[in-house]
Design a protein that fits this description.
It comes from Nitratireductor thuwali. One of its GO terms (molecular function) is acetate-CoA ligase activity. By secondary structure, the protein is of the alpha/beta class. 31% of the residues lie in helices and 23% in strands. It is built from 21 helices and 31 strands. A hairpin with a 5-residue loop joins strand 21 and strand 22. The protein is globular and about 75 Å long. The protein starts with 10 loop residues before the first helix and ends in a 6-residue tail after the last helix. The model has no long low-confidence stretch (mean pLDDT 96). Bound molecules: ligand 6R9. Ligand 6R9 binds next to helix 12, strand 25 and strand 26.
Amino acid sequence: MSEVHVHQVKPEWKKDALIDKDTYEKWYKDSIDDPEAFWAKHGKRIDWFTPFTKVKNTSFNGDVSIKWFEDGTTNASYNCIDRHLEKRGDQTAILWEGDDPAEDQKISYRELHEHVCRLANVMKSNGVKKGDRVTIYMPMIPEAAYAMLACARIGAVHSVVFGGFSPDSLAGRIEDCRSDFVITADEGLRGGKKVPLKANTDKAIEIAEKAGAKVRNVLVVRRTGADVNWVDGRDLSYDDETSKASTDCEPEKMNAEDPLFILYTSGSTGKPKGVLHTTGGYLVYTSMTHQYVFDYHEGDIYWCTADVGWVTGHSYIVYGPLANGAQTLMFEGVPNYPDASRFWQVIDKHKVNIFYTAPTAIRALMGAGDDHVKKTSRKSLRVLGTVGEPINPEAWEWYYKVVGDERSPIVDTWWQTETGGILISPLPGATDLKPGSATRPFFGVRPQLVDGDGKVLEGPASGNLCIADSWPGQMRTVYGDHERFIQTYFSTYKGKYFTGDGCRRDEDGYYWITGRVDDVINVSGHRMGTAEVESALVSHPKVSEAAVVGYPHDVKGQGIYCYVTLMSGEKGSEELKKELVAHVRNEIGPIASPDKIQFAPGLPKTRSGKIMRRILRKIAEDDYRALGDTSTLADPAVVEDLVENRQNKR
Ligand code: 6R9
């Protein structure tokens, strides 16, 4: 291994930091020794209508049951808005920066309250009740946050679907949670390009209704003003409806364990799972991690560049920051529009103090050259963060030196849709940094490394990353399929939550995530099940079989490599490759676009018919000399053809 360059906590990072080294060690120890007492104390950081008397009631065995603060009642929207009105009514809550640099908007907490109440009343008067599922398919505009908070206010469960997903993907998600109310926009705008959200929604509903779903209403926000198809009786105009609605709406009294949202995410098998998060524990955990991981201080301008379609947008654009009364910047655009200095321009324009983005963006901007960064000031920056995939030390150092001018610590935050919030990360004033390591666990988090036989490894070691005990932000179930929840996360290693990630722990107890150990690939920080891409490919009439693997990609982290066997009589061509790429984009969305397609007369299979992905991964990485034992293959000759025609020759 190359030598690790340790960046010690600088005196100026420590100076006003909320947590220093000693406090971290003490709090961490307390949180592990007595979780009940620790979380009883920190559970009070949010406002409760009825205070909880029970703190932790969790089991990772048997039927797996996770309950936090179970007899308390509260409301997420109340905590993100109402409780700030007295002190911060006129302070900005959402700082919106449009795709077009000339467009921006500031929404104060008081205005946020008004917008959310109006929308909540519109939903109520159109029959949305506590417990109903509402699908949100939106661009990054303030109305997306209003929609989430309005659901939370009336106790409806939101399911946000990323605006880049196809009508098919949207249909599957509407169908799975039987959602009968959809909120969308006429069109989205990203990097100067329009995204036909309403047209996609219309198609999705058609598909979903064929499968038995029924959508009662579609509420449409006007973003570009495009002329869109309108279904009378079903479609509602956001402007018309909200302008008539009252600006007062009592927040619903929610039990701590009442569902807050469902968010679909990819796994190694089957269709995407509806990850279910509940109210109290999620809010305690996201607000607490937001405060301590980013060393958030009152008045800071905070910017997380994620999309609300992903969990990072839920926890660290909307719920965490707003629960803390922060000014959260919401960005509609992309990093390279109008040019590759956009992020740094926005930082200067709004004097951003805390900036949180993804390694894939950092690598892409690094590739665009330092000039784009250096022509901006970035003096306001105090803390930098990354999330979504492992960050390579080169990109880390560039982020640290060129973007941060060596003034700001980088928090490399490891977590998952399932974990609700950050589990492993440095704290700016407490943790010495090692580029590429997510460093140490957050309070209350007990990581364990486990070998293939389930043995817990001590000291420096490499293994599969598990978490030994529950934390308040953890998912509670897979929506509608608790058995799948148990099978996916708690059956591989008895009594432990298995993350699906591989990990190394070094001699200082630092954690280094090495990537997924299952059939999930991480493309630009987006999780993709190889099985999903395979099923999209085989739905093409000319394809008989497909196997998909990830391979190292300079910018995306991992690229999508597809081995495709055609129906007999069909011939592979460049044309057909293009057709297949378009087909997959159409089935899932642009984020699933194959990077490489290799036509293969046969796939390497064991005698029992199992595709040997290990071999396919090696060939895709152009590392075919290390193929290992191929003697168990039904037909070892197929491997020669695959190697001969590999698409990644170096
Ligand atoms: C928040 C989010 C989760 C998977 C996770 C892991 C990878 C996320 C990481 C990281 C290394 C980090 N991942 N953060 N790997 N270092 N700091 O990304 O959720 O979309 O569910 O993805 O992403 O492999 O298992 P999600």
